[in-house]
Write a structure and sequence with these properties.
heterodimer, A: 723 residues, mainly beta, 22-stranded antiparallel barrel, 6 helices, 6% helix, globular, B: 173 residues, 4-stranded mixed sheet, 1 helix, elongated
Chain lengths: 723, 173
């Protein structure tokens, strides 16, 4: 009997044992990074677990049968698998969770040099998220900016709210920074967009309107601050590759090549942390054969970032970035019948360049409420232009800044700082000038009055450009933010700005191609501005918001390139100029997390008050519309851009007797439509994303600058793998 | 709401698609009574390293001797054609090699793409190599006659240059 009972019990235990199974799997985000602490539960049972630091989970001894499995984590959309059949042996689950825009306020650091809620700002701001960049397969950062409200690109020159027209790559009125460290070159003062590591961006903050009172000279038109990603806590490797092709033109005379023109790229990045040291490295090779003749480019981009925490109060961040580039130099078309071919005398012009950017950021917490930050950077740029003559320039730019944030009470914050920069240029076209700049600033924010935030600040700069006499500038600002109600926030600001001429604008003596020469102007003065902005953010509900702003900037001694009757270009000061306008931005989550619509409209009235005419290369009306539909794992998007026809151009360049650019008067309104289609999928156990992009869908032909047709319709496929 | 959004999007796409096609090439200057010709030169194969100057040259008659290479047989030249070009669209008005020379109406029996090892113009036949010929049915040994009428632009004077398969060379080279 005992034997029988034992046998029955043993049999029962075997049956019971065999009637359970184990569910295993891994949970990652759409970026491929494992998610820690995801709750994995079988609905209506007591079975549950959570993912470990590498995203793995295991649910043991689950009775066989069908269950509903729910995955949930803060900041992610809940994921549910219904009717999951638990068997003896179950294959590992692969779960990808999508981030959810939870109702936490967006944080901005660029407007005040300390972290602040976007809705507390006194100035207009746009934030670009990295998923927008990944989705559209951008290859250089300037293409990203073509989709940002209030920002306009004219070829490679950026303008915020009309601050710049086009000045042949010399000088910028928008300060572009990586982690708050400026990225303008020491000689031309321009931005090399190819330097910016697109796959390592955490977010981009765009401050619209002058920020000279905090950032100095080059921020007279605004700030674009690129915040790079911190190193991953767990090892993550990303491999990216893309390939694309330009369509042919519908005009036979434009099809200068027998072959389809292509572009492709390949790269990888790896990020990890070892104890207190975090690191990210990435290498990329990008090639573009160009849709225009002599418009090819070949780029090698390497990027590394190290984060090191000595203790909870002291952290270092070191960044090194290198770009080696060889490209053709397309200046102007031959004529409208040969719009994709350069002028004969410019054909074959090339530029080789090598650029290094290094920055070191040291953070030290004085207390829970006060901190110091030291930023040091070195930017070395070298280029060699090969055309009728060889042009070379090497510029070394050193920069140091000390920032202190002191939070005396919860409602009173003081920011103080000082910086100096020094540049030395060795060139056969800019002479060999030195450039020195020192600045000090003080800013206060007060929140002590109900619903009101007051900010005020002032900066002093001293600038010395080689043999020219030194110049100084004081730039105060004042801003208010008033929360009229929970859903209506008003803001207003007034600020001053200044910009010193760059060595290129003062000292250039060179032929820039196309029969155009640039001549020196040692009498060039710094420009100054006075700006005013008033705006309102209206939240109709949690899914629909409207942001509107009116702005006006008056400039004195505005620096512009001017074509002389001799055919030479000389940078001159326009005595008085005024830019006015308004901006309307709306964001509508039609179906939250699934269907969104963003639209913005800018009206700009920019004019030379002395000559009583519009300023050059500034469209009066600009409209952006973005529609995105993402039922995971699919992703569909449509982008539309409209710019009205530019009113004023360099007429002397296109009209007799010079007529250096044949048919250069041709310009039209801009209508560009792009579509993107994405899909998240797995290759074996490796998460992967693929995107198909068609840019300039309707193959619309337009120019941003005279004699330069913008890219034809092009199709590209982008693949990203995460390990 | 979704219905209105879809209608809006569809209308937008239709609107955008109906927008004009943007910048267009100017028509060739034939309507204003200009006398001349236009066409496309297509290059295939690798450009020789030694080439310093490439022109499209119009001769009144075929070259029977080295002396025929110079004037008065040499009637007109177009270029210079950029080194390494794959396609060169031209017309005799905008791309004249010399603004002083004019092209009269008439028949021209030898129209070629000629390449020189010298950067400056030379009238010495030995300095030149014929790389492509305006010809009949693609047969480069059968030069075609270019006919130019007064006040008209003769179109499609197209020439193929294949560096791997050069045409027969005229005497004197």
């Amino acid at each position: 009997m005992k034997i029988l009972i034992t046998q029955v019990l043993l049999l029962c235990s075997i049956v019971i044992y065999s009637q359970t199974g184990t569910i295993t799997g891994r949970v990652i985000g759409t970026d491929g990074i494992p998610i820690l602490g995801v709750n994995v539960i079988l609905v209506n049972t007591h079975y549950g677990t959570a993912t470990d630091s590498k995203g793995f989970f295991e649910l043991k001894n689950v009775p066989l049968g069908k269950y509903t499995i729910q995955f949930s984590a803060i900041g992610y959309q809940k994921k549910i698998i219904e009717n999951y059949d638990v068997k003896d042996i179950n294959p590992p689950l692969k779960i990808v969770m999508q981030e959810q825009a939870i109702e936490t306020p967006q944080i901005v650091v660029s407007a005040t040099k300390f972290e602040q809620k976007k809705e507390d700002l006194t100035v207009s701001t746009s934030i670009i998220q990295p998923d927008f960049i990944a989705r559209k397969n951008f290859t250089t950062f300037d293409d990203v900016l073509r989709y940002v409200s209030g920002v306009q690109m004219t070829l490679d020159q950026v303008s915020i709210r009309g601050s710049s027209g086009y000045s042949k790559g010399a000088g910028t009125r928008v300060l572009v920074a990586i982690d708050g460290v400026p990225l303008y070159s020491g000689d031309t003062g321009d931005i090399v967009w190819e330097m910016i590591p697109l796959t390592d961006i955490e977010r981009v903050e765009v401050i619209k309107g002058p920020a000279s009172s905090l950032y100095g000279s080059t921020a007279i038109g605004g700030v674009i601050n690129i915040i790079t990603k911190s190193s991953s806590k767990n090892p993550i490797t990303q491999i990216m590759t893309y390939a694309g092709v330009y369509d042919k033109s519908k005009y036979d005379s434009w099809n200068w090549s027998n072959n389809y023109r292509t572009f492709y790229g390949f790269g990888f990045s790896h990020s990890n942390s070892v104890n207190k040291l975090g690191y990210t490295i990435s290498l990329k090779k990008l090639e573009n054969s160009g849709y225009r003749e002599n418009d090819f480019s070949e780029r090698y981009l390497s990027y590394a970032k190290l984060n090191f925490s000595i203790d909870s109060s002291n952290t270092f961040s070191f960044l090194i970035n290198n770009l080696i580039m060889n490209r053709g130099n397309f200046l102007y078309w031959k004529d409208s019948r040969n719009a994709l071919v350069p002028k004969d005398e410019d054909n074959g012009n090339t530029i080789r360049s090598n650029r290094w950017f290094l920055s070191l950021i040291y953070n030290h917490s004085l207390s829970k409420k006060s901190a110091l930050q030291f930023k040091s950077s070195f930017y070395r740029t070298y280029f060699e232009g090969r055309g009728i003559e060889v042009t070379t320039s090497t510029a070394n730019l050193f920069r140091n800044e000390l920032i202190g944030n002191f939070r005396f009470t919860d409602s009173f914050i003081i920011t103080v700082g000082g910086e100096f920069s020094y540049a030395h240029v060795k060139s056969n076209i800019f002479a060999n000038p030195n450039f020195f700049n020192a600045g000090m600033y003080l800013q206060a924010e007060y929140k002590g009055i109900d619903k009101l935030i007051v900010t005020t600040g002032i900066r002093y700069d001293y600038i010395k450009l080689d043999t020219l006499s030194g110049a100084s500038a004081v730039t105060p600002k004042f801003g208010l933010n008033y929360k009229l109600s929970k859903n209506i926030i008003l803001r207003a600001s007034m600020g001053t700005g200044f910009r010193a001429p760059t060595p290129a604008e003062v000292f250039t003596t060179a032929g820039v191609g196309g029969g155009v020469n640039v001549v020196q102007n040692p009498d060039l003065k710094s420009e100054r501005s006075l700006s005013f902005e008033a705006g309102a953010l209206i939240k109709y509900n949690s899914n629909l918001s409207f942001d509107m702003a009116f702005f006006q900037t008056d400039y004195e001694n505005f620096i512009e390139p001017n074509l002389l009757k001799s055919g030479d270009i000389k940078f001159i000061n326009l005595p008085k100029a005024r830019i006015q306008g308004y901006e309307l931005v709306t964001e509508w989550n039609v179906l939250p997390q699934i269907l969104t619509l963003k639209a913005s409209y800018n009206y700009l009235w920019a004019r030379d008050l002395q000559l009583h005419k519009a300023m050059k290369y500034r469209p009066r009306n600009v409209l952006y519309v973005n529609f995105q539909y993402y039922p995971y794992p699919f992703d569909f998007g449509i982008d539309f851009r409209y710019w009205s026809k530019v009113e004023e151009i360099d007429n002397l360049l296109v009209e007799p007797p010079l007529a250096l650019v044949v048919d250069g008067y041709k310009r039209v309104p801009v209508y560009v439509t792009d579509i993107n289609i994405g899909y998240n999928f797995f290759i074996s156990t490796i998460p992967a994303k693929v995107f198909l992009n068609i840019k300039n869908l309707f193959n619309y032909y337009y120019v941003e600058f005279i004699g330069n047709v913008a890219p034809l319709r092009n199709i590209s496929l982008d693949l990203e793998l995460f390990f | 709401m979704k219905k209105y959004l879809l209608i809006f999007l569809f209308s937008s796409v239709v609107f955008i698609a109906r927008c004009d096609k943007g910048i267009e090439p100017n028509p060739l200057p034939e309507s204003n009574g200009t006398t001349g010709f236009a066409g496309t030169i297509t290059f295939s194969g690798n450009w020789p390293d030694s080439v310093k100057l490439t022109l499209l040259v119009v001769f009144k008659n075929k070259l029977q001797s080295a002396q025929d290479f110079g004037s008065p047989n040499l009637s007109y030249a177009i270029g210079p054609i950029p080194y390494g070009a794959t396609i060169y669209n031209y017309n005799s008005v905008d791309n004249s090699y010399s603004s002083l020379s004019t092209l009269d109406a008439g028949s021209y029996n030898y129209v070629v793409v000629a390449q020189s090892t010298k950067e400056t113009i030379s009238l010495d036949r030995k300095d030149w190599f014929v790389a492509g010929v305006y010809c009949v049915n693609g047969n480069q040994s059968q030069p075609a006659t270019l006919i130019i009428e007064k006040g008209k632009m003769t179109q499609n004077v197209n020439i193929n240059v294949d560096f791997n398969n050069p045409p027969p060379q005229p005497p004197g080279g």
